[in-house]
Write a structure and sequence with these properties.
The protein is α+β, with helices and mostly antiparallel strands. Helix content is 31%, strand content 28%. It is built from 18 helices and 32 strands. Residues 150-320 form the Tr-type G domain.
């Protein structure tokens, strides 16, 4: 090839574009030298190509479809004249859009952003105008001292499960709450207003003592002025007692100790008081400043002394609130009641709550439709420290513990709720964007690593997906792994119970069986739940919820299992049973007989090759044809497995008992026997596995 042809090729338009790349600059210089000198030859070596990851320093800017030139200038924070000049240079047809300030095409938007050294990112639309945080509802400032009036104290009864908390509350209000509780344990917070001596009222919150309801006890402590710590005289401080003390201290709430069950023969009130010392609770009887009263809730003994202690503590605290102004309250419990709808149990903390008030709690709002007290009687208004059940909530149920604030109008309430929802969505979007950016950076790093592998092989072109990723993953298939699974849908009566169940399920860490929570909600099962369970193969658990007869029929027709529960530990036991039932059964070998070889016989059966037979004496137990046999010689196992035949003389038998001689033939004809070889017979037994999940408190 002549020098003129080489120079002509190197100066062609297609080659000129290739030669602009930095990686071939040196090759271009050398080629020119070869052409000018008229020499031909090969390079002695090829420089290794290195792929470098250079992070972009361009500022990211959000753009969207149908942007106008003014929108684009505002998003890029540049003058409109500069945008106009760039748009005209990109396409003369953009002049009409500039004059009318109408929408631009996507290419013009992207090229304009790139020309100004921005990194464009398409979003769904223009950013919404975010209202100021001041538009949100906030608690009112402290009331004037002249408007304050004495209010009843809010008392939470806390302690270990089965120490008599609800029975004590029964005795104080002369009712039968405990008799109506499933399994004798409280499973959600109950709020009651009780009239004590001297005509004074006290609001009681009865919290669950079971370990599963720790969050409910924490909320009960935070919403109270005084905590009555119930300790059984025959049991002392237990796990939930210590937890209740911690919650009370964290909430900075005053303690009054009630040593219950003093009527029992093995009661030791002083030992129960001393057990409190380990948790820095020193009662008056031991020289401390915490009131302690010995009572018997079952026999209603010494209850006036407990009432006096509560009222004395309330007087010392000088609890006051105003009945004027907008009402404020705290959500104690929320649920869905058939025929009424979404309801919440509230305890008013300020103002006077009336029918028709507009309330906002969390991301929910309501116009008060009805108000009932704990006895189901209609209430027209509720003053501070009074518990009421309010209906009329829209959208989602408020979360227990949410602060309830009164709004002036429905429009204001809806704006506040929308503002709070938008705030949550923005926070979630920011979090998702961060996660997406991290994933994109990781994917970029993986691509550059794979590209470098191709370059190391001498391949400058080709797909990394086909040549690296697929080649490495060619034996991996996305198939069902075959591991046991249990899918679950949960429906409960109230939000607090659902929260407690979810906390229990969060403790599940077993690798034996996968537990998949498909859905969970408050309220009875619906047709949507039946369809979801059918699609996913899930089991539906209901807790303290009555399943409508129509839904039961649909579930039976679809083959969906619905299990109903009203006691928390029975639900956990049933769940553990379902998980255990899905585990593969294990086979264990149990020794059922022993013997030894008397002599080896070589027998030919119907002209076939002679095979060794172990003439064996059964020392004890029973040799069965289906047993697994182990032959040992000294300390060495010469055979372990099933036998081919078992004969007594010339007769084929299926078992042999103690002191019986029997001939054993193996399927492996190469194994030979010697006198005094030991023989052990093992029976196969199927064992059902139990799931290795032990939730706290169960």
């Amino acid at each position: 090839m002549s020098n003129k042809i080489i120079i002509k090729l190197l100066t062609s338009s297609s080659c000129r574009q290739l030669l602009r790349r930095p990686t071939v600059q040196n090759s271009w210089i050398e080629a020119k030298q070869f052409a000018s000198e008229g020499k031909r030859g090969k390079r002695k070596f090829v420089e290794a190509a290195v792929v470098k990851s250079t992070k972009s320093t361009k500022q990211t800017v959000d753009v969207w479809k149908t942007m106008s030139p003014s929108d684009l200038a505002s998003a890029l924070s540049v003058d409109l004249s500069e945008i106009t000049e760039i748009l005209e240079s990109i396409d003369r047809r953009n002049v009409d859009a500039i004059i009318a300030d109408s929408s631009l095409d996507d290419v013009s938007i992207l090229q304009t952003a790139a020309a100004l050294s921005f990194k464009p990112r398409f979003v769904n639309g223009p950013p919404k105008r975010v209202e100021q945080e001041d538009a949100d509802l906030r608690p009112q400032p402290d009331a004037s001292p002249k408007d304050l009036e004495r209010r009843p104290p809010i008392v939470t009864i806390m302690g270990h499960v089965d120490h008599g908390k609800t029975t004590l509350l029964d005795a104080l209000r002369n009712s039968q709450i405990a008799a109506g509780e499933f399994g004798g344990i409280t499973q959600h917070i109950g709020a009651f207003s009780v009239e004590l001596t001297k005509g004074r009222r006290v609001t009681f919150l009865d919290t669950p003592g079971h370990a599963a309801f720790a969050s409910m006890r924490a909320r009960g402590a935070k919403g109270a002025d005084i905590v009555v710590l119930v300790v059984a005289a025959d049991d002392g401080v237990k796990e939930q007692t210590a937890q209740s003390i911690k919650f009370a201290k964290d909430a900075n709430v005053q303690l009054v100790v009630a040593v219950n069950k003093i009527d029992k023969p093995n009661a030791d009130p002083m030992r129960a008081m001393r057990s409190l010392l380990e948790h820095d609770v020193v009662v008056e009887q031991l020289g401390g400043d915490i009131q302690c009263v010995e009572v018997s809730a079952l026999q209603s003994r010494n209850l006036p002394a407990l009432q006096d202690a509560l009222l004395l503590q309330a007087d010392v605290m000088d609890l006051k609130a105003t009945k004027n102004g907008k009402s404020e309250a705290v959500v104690i419990e929320s649920s869905v009641v058939h025929g009424i709808g979404k309801v919440c149990t509230l305890v008013v903390s300020r103002g006077t709550l009336k029918k028709g008030c507009i309330l906002v709690a969390g991301n929910s709002w309501c116009r008060v439709k009805t108000m009932h007290d704990e006895n189901g009687k209609i209430v027209m208004e509720a003053t501070p420290s009074q518990p009421v059940r309010v209906s009329g909530w829209k959208d989602d149920l408020p979360t227990p513990g949410d602060l309830v604030l009164e709004a002036e109008t429905v429009d204001r309430a809806q704006k506040v709720v929308n503002l709070r929802i938008d705030k949550v969505m923005r926070e979630k979007a920011d979090k998702d964007w961060e996660e997406t950016r991290d994933q994109r950076d990781k994917a970029r790093e993986t691509y550059l690593s794979n590209r470098q592998k191709l370059l190391d092989r001498g391949q400058r072109f080709g797909s990394t997906l086909r040549n690296i990723v697929h080649r490495n993953q060619r034996i991996e298939k996305d198939v069902e792994d075959g591991s046991p699974k249990f899918r679950l849908i949960i429906r409960t009566d109230v939000e607090g119970t659902l929260e407690a169940i979810l906390e229990i399920l969060n403790t599940y860490k077993s690798e034996q069986c996968k537990l998949q929570l498909v859905d969970f909600e408050v309220g009875p099962p619906t047709e949507k739940d039946i369809e979801l369970a059918k699609e996913t193969g899930a089991t539906l658990y209901t807790f303290n919820v009555e399943t409508p007869a129509k839904m039961k029929q649909r579930a039976d027709a679809a083959g969906i299992q619905i299990d109903s529960f009203n006691v928390i530990y029975r639900m956990v036991e049933a769940l553990k049973g379902e998980l255990s039932a899905r585990l593969p059964k294990q086979t264990e070998l149990h020794l059922v007989g022993e013997g030894h070889v008397l002599k080896e016989f070589m027998i030919s059966d119907r002209g076939r090759k002679r095979q060794p037979i172990a003439g064996t004496l059964v020392n004890w137990g029973n040799f069965d044809r289906n047993c697994v046999y182990k032959f040992t010689r000294g300390n060495q196992v010469i055979y372990e497995g099933e036998i081919e035949t078992m004969k007594a003389g010339m007769e084929v038998v299926s078992n042999a008992k103690t002191n019986t001689e029997v001939g054993l033939a193996l399927s492996d004809k190469n194994i030979r026997f010697k006198e005094d070889d030991q023989v052990e017979a093992y029976e196969k037994r199927t064992i059902i596995q139990e799931i290795d999940w032990y939730p706290p408190g169960f």
